[in-house]
């Protein structure tokens, strides 16, 4: 009985800590790096960088991000850490990377329910497309599939790498990683994930910025990738690569740093 109560308390602590830590990391990271994200969106826009706003109004579209950032990040980490906490005790350590991949996939599936409509509104405002008042529900979720096709591989690479780097660091120094060490591990894993998924991000951005009257068949990710490649070649598929990788790497450092620091604070001060 006592064992069950302890287990339930541990579960509550994990979920609460993940909820708060994810929200804090998401809000701070998006607030700091929003201008870089705007530049990346405009570089990837089919209308061109200058017509999409150039270096003007870099915080255009910031409001929906602030509304959606905390719940999306919280949902991801509550799901990710919850699945980890549930399954890891039953499997040998060599299989933990599989758990991390599965947990990351489930986290992305749920977080994208909030992230996609927020990104549609945000990116249309970033590209100075002022039709967000007339967007239909179907249009708000346009790009859900392409976002998953980008974010699932991203998460599948990022989270197991982050956990692996932290484990290597822990084995090297014979203690748990500090928040700053966890942040460094996060930055490296994010850099790798970002570089790999850039073409998918380009296609996703084009889909979200496409006209609301465009037929659904024309905004499939495979069609968009072919269109970009035919028009701009490999360079087009990696449009916005530098600001995206730089921004995401710095963002990964801040995101995982805030996440680890908040997690450490919650573990020390809140016990259920």
Describe the structure.
- 78% of the residues lie in helices and 0% in strands.
- The chain contains eight helices and no strands.
- The radius of gyration is 19 Å and the shape is globular.
- Helix 6 (179-209) packs across helix 7 (221-237).
- It has helices spanning 2-44, 62-87, 96-126, 137-140, 144-173, 179-209, 221-237, 241-269.
- With 272 residues, it is an all-alpha fold.
- The protein has a single domain (2-269), classed as Alpha/alpha barrel (Mitochondrial carrier fold).
- Keywords: Membrane, Repeat, Transmembrane, Transmembrane helix, Transport.
- It is found in: Membrane.
- The chain crosses the membrane at residues 14-36, 57-78, 236-259.
- Belongs to the mitochondrial carrier (TC 2.A.29) family.
- This is S-adenosylmethionine mitochondrial carrier protein-like.
């Amino acid at each position: 009985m006592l064992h069950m109560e302890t287990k339930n308390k541990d579960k509550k602590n994990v979920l609460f800590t993940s909820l708060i830590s994810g929200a804090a990391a998401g809000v701070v990271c998006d607030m700091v790096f929003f201008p870089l994200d705007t530049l990346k969106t405009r570089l990837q826009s089919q209308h061109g960088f200058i017509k999409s706003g150039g270096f003007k109004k870099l915080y255009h579209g910031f409001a929906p991000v602030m509304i959606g950032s905390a719940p999306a990040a919280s949902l991801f980490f509550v799901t990710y850490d919850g699945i980890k906490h549930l399954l890891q005790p039953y499997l040998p350590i060599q299989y933990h990377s599989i758990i991390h991949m599965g947990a990351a996939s489930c986290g992305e599936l749920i977080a994208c329910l909030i992230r996609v409509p927020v990104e549609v509104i945000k990116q249309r405002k970033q590209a100075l497309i002022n039709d967000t008042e007339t967007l239909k529900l179907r249009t708000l979720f346009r790009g859900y599939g392409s976002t998953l096709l980008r974010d699932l591989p991203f998460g599948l690479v990022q989270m197991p790498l982050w956990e692996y780097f932290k484990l290597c660091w822990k084995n090297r120094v014979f203690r748990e990683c500090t928040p700053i060490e966890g942040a460094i591990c996060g930055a490296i894993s994010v850099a790798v994930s970002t570089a790999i998924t850039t073409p998918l991000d380009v296609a996703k951005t084009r889909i979200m910025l496409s006209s609301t009257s465009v037929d659904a068949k024309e905004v499939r990710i495979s069609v968009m990738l072919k269109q970009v490649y035919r028009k701009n070649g490999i360079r087009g598929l990696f449009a916005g690569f530098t600001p995206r990788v730089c921004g995401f790497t710095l963002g990964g450092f801040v995101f995982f740093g805030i996440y680890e620091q908040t997690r450490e604070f919650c573990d020390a001060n809140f016990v259920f």
